[in-house]
Amino acid sequence: MEEKVRIVSEEETLFEGHAHELPFRESAIKQKSLELFDEEDPCILHRSFVFEALGDEVLEALDELGNDVARLDAHEAFAKIDIEAVEATISRC
Amino acid sequence: MIYLDYAATTPPSETVIEAVTQTLRDYPGNPSSFHRPGREAKKRYQQAKRHIATLLGTIPERIFFTGSGSEATALALKGHPFTPGETILTTTVEHHATLHTLEQLKKNGIRVRTLPCDHEGFLPEETLEAALAEERTGMLSLVHANNEIGTLQDLKALGDLAHAHDVKVHADMVQSPLHMQLALDEMPVDYASFSAHKFFGPKGIGILYARDVNELTPLIDGGGQEHGLRSGTENLPYIVGLEKALAEAVEALTPREAAIRRLAKRFLWRLEASTLEYNLNGPPLEKPRLWNILNIGFKGVDPQRLAYKLDRHDIAVSLGSACSGDTIERSHVLEAIKAPRSHGALRFSLSHHESEEDIDDVVEVLQRLLL
Ligand SMILES: Cc1ncc(COP(=O)(O)O)c(C=O)c1O
Question: Mind telling me the catalytic residues of B?
Answer without folding.
Answer: 323
